[in-house]
Specification:
By secondary structure, this protein is α+β, with helices and mostly antiparallel strands. It is about 20% helix and about 30% strand. α4 crosses α11 and α9 runs parallel beside α10. Among the domains are: about 150 residues, Jelly Rolls (Sandwich), CATH 2.60.120; about 90 residues, no CATH class. The longest helix is centred in the middle third of the chain and has 19 residues. The N terminus is likely disordered.
Length: about 675
């Protein structure tokens, strides 16, 4: 186990931590932040911070087993103590907090390893949407793994989180982060100690929303983010009022087919859709009708298996671009706006009693691609009791389709809705709502799966991500807090010629952070993505590779922490030799054939596909007949490398890298 800070040092730092967020709405008496509930896990081998509010100047006593601590509440009622470090224990005990004639008792508390799991939609992606979900959920009976799911709150003022600790079981695992679950399960099986997982993520969000403004304001690479928001918010009220007026006028045109909203005629079971066109879902309608923007209705009648009749069901539609209104048996079941939002809707049992089910989905897209952007595996109907063995019905394939409104250039189309002061994208809003209230609850470390929403500002991310890591460490007063980073997966169409996309530069920023910021690690998943799905469903691989890093770096176990990592390059005439670390017993080629995905450039900085071969244990030689003097090498440098087949002896993939520092497409992009 890595060395931890002294009890005195940690306690001193915690006292300085802002206690204003301890309990957001203090009503008097003894109160505790929401992170303290029954079934929690306390971090082993570290001082355990316990804090809250009490009547001013009253004595507060905290006890847990043989550990106890006392303090006096301050003039504003804030108090904090730190229990001395403890060894891991499966013995369920009570944490008791007393002040005056009040006592709060938290039952079934264990001591083990606690990890914060955060990011955007790929961290949010729940286990029920992962590969082999039914089997994985059925087997998720791990009462000594405890789950805390932070409710998504964007806040421009100090607040508390909403959530509660639960024992991991088939009843709740399906709704929890798949990455976090697989990571925690691997740790539990290898460490044999209780595991606590705090899941705090939000799809489509940017790293600056998870970072405090005070730290971003100090750096010229990140200050433009704050300047842009300050400028936009100064005119927000006026712009938002104008947008509302424009949007109302536009919606009168667009939503003429959506009245009444709860049960429009085109959604009715009895509606005759035989004259509608045939369609195959999932699918992007602009691949067949490039000029179509507007409203398209889809309908499908589903034969309902006996096992699903009369039960509450879940309708899974994956991602839809941009807005959907979804109806079952003629009645509304859900509506969402945003292509990154997963459409997961509940169908009441009273609507599923018959042998068939009519599903109608109204899709509105104002520009660019429109339609279903899901994989076939994401379109299905099943029982809410995930993993209980009920049948599921695939919704992929034949549907009926009708264009209800086709946008014309003369229509009064409003611009995007202005982002306001409480928006999830505003700098620090998610830090306030979903991170700061958790500190300084003792953690071993954090894992982070985010970057897609910052890819257009990849150069800035090289500064922003290390800054955010330091910010979190400062909040926990733990300068060495381990931090695991998931590198972006392969995504988009495969290209045949060398490219220089922002996505590759974002991966490079993540690699740069892992190589330059102490006590960080990188989970490379360049082989686990999906070309058509920004949410690859293989989250087992992600969690497993994060766990490998943690087991090696954090828990000193004899495992290879990850795949090969670029170390340095030497050139001689037309050839370049690239050396790697983390090779295990040596570099290898996955599958048959030569190494792929290397490119090489000469002094003209023109990139060419390269030939490459392994030379010795840790080196690859790279060359091309088109380059007479080798200057720089890249590997896997595209959105979706076709065959990134350089691995180490554990078959773990090498991280994409570049040896050069030449200008990139996002170097000047500093504003959101």
């Amino acid at each position: 186990m890595k060395k931890t800070q002294s009890f005195v040092a940690v306690l001193a730092g915690l006292i300085l931590h802002t206690l204003a967020i301890a309990v957001a709405a203090y009503g008097g008496g003894l109160e505790m932040p929401a992170i303290f509930t029954d079934h929690m896990v306390l971090q082993q081998e570290k001082p355990v911070s316990v804090w809250g509010k009490a009547d001013p100047d009253t004595q507060v006593t905290v006890s847990f087993g043989e550990r106890s601590a006392q303090t006096k509440a301050g003039g504003d009622g804030s108090w904090m103590v730190a229990l001395k470090s403890m060894k891991a224990s499966f013995e369920p005990r009570q944490l008791m907090v007393s002040s005056g004639d009040q006592t709060l008792i938290f039952d079934d508390v264990l001591v083990g390893e606690v990890w914060l799991c955060s990011g955007q939609s790929n961290m949010q992606w729940d286990l029920a949407r992962c590969d082999d979900a039914e089997m994985e959920i059925a087997l998720a009976d791990w009462p000594n793994i405890r789950l805390f799911y932070v409710q998504r709150i964007a806040s421009d003022v100090p607040t508390d989180v909403v959530g509660q600790w639960e024992r991991c079981s088939p009843d709740n695992a399906g709704a929890f982060s798949g990455v976090a679950y697989f990571f925690g399960r691997d740790l539990y099986q290898r460490l044999n100690v209780p595991i606590g997982l705090v899941h705090s993520s939000w799809g489509g969000t940017r790293a600056e929303a998870w970072t405090r403004c005070s730290v971003m304001a100090e750096n010229p690479m990140t200050k433009p983010i704050l300047d842009k928001w300050e400028s936009d918010l100064a005119t927000y009220d006026q712009r938002h009022e104008e947008w509302q007026q424009q949007n109302a006028a536009y919606m009168d045109i667009v939503e003429s087919d959506l009245k009444p909203a709860e049960a429009p005629p085109l959604a009715a079971v009895a509606f005759d859709d035989s004259a509608w066109a045939d369609a195959t879902l999932p699918g992007n309608w602009e691949k067949t009708d490039p000029d179509l923007d507007g409203v398209v209705w889809y309908r499908k009648m589903v034969e309902l298996p006996e096992a699903l009749r009369g039960k509450e069901l879940q309708l899974n539609l994956g991602m839809i671009n941009d807005q959907d209104w979804t109806f079952v048996q003629g009645l509304a079941v859900g509506h969402l706006n945003g292509r990154s939002s997963l459409r997961l809707y509940t169908i009441p049992a009273e609507q599923t009693v018959g042998p068939t089910l009519t599903i109608a989905v109204r899709v509105f897209d104002a520009g660019a691609d429109g339609g279903f952007e899901s994989e076939e595996s994401e379109l299905w109907l099943g029982a809410m009791e995930a993993g209980a063995g009920e049948e599921t019905v695939s919704l992929a394939g034949a549907w009926k389709m009708h264009v209800a409104y086709r946008k014309s250039p003369s229509d009064p189309v409003p611009s995007a809705e202005p982002l306001g002061p409480k928006d999830r994208h505003r700098p620090e809003n998610l830090s306030r709502g979903m991170i700061q209230p958790l500190a300084p609850y003792a953690l071993r470390g954090a894992i982070w799966y985010q970057g897609e929403s910052n890819a257009s500002r990849a150069a800035q991310y090289r500064v922003l991500l290390p800054m955010m890591i330091k910010d979190w460490r400062d909040q926990w007063n733990d300068k060495d807090m381990p931090f695991g980073i998931v590198q972006l997966a392969n995504y988009y169409d495969v290209t045949t010629e060398p490219t220089d996309p922002p996505w590759a530069h974002l991966r490079d920023a993540q690699l740069f952070t892992a190589k330059t910021v102490p006590h960080t690690g990188l989970a490379v998943i360049i082989d686990a993505g999906m070309a058509k799905n920004i949410h690859p469903t293989d989250k087992f691989t992600v969690g497993h590779r994060l766990a490998r890093w943690a087991l090696h770096d954090v828990y000193d176990m004899d495992v290879l922490r990850g795949g090969p990592v670029y170390e340095k390059m030497q050139t001689k005439a037309d050839k370049a030799r690239v050396r790697f670390t983390d090779v295990g017993e040596g570099l290898a080629v996955r599958g048959d054939g030569p190494l792929h995905e290397f490119t090489i450039a000469g002094e003209d900085r023109v990139w060419h596909h390269a030939e490459a071969e392994i030379v010795g244990k840790d080196m690859v030689e790279v060359w091309s007949p088109q380059v007479s003097k080798a200057v720089a090498v890249r590997y896997g440098w595209s959105n979706n490398p076709a065959d990134p087949n350089l691995v180490n002896s554990e078959n773990l993939p090498a991280s994409p890298f570049r040896s050069d520092d030449w200008p990139g497409p996002t170097d000047d992009a500093l504003e959101p």
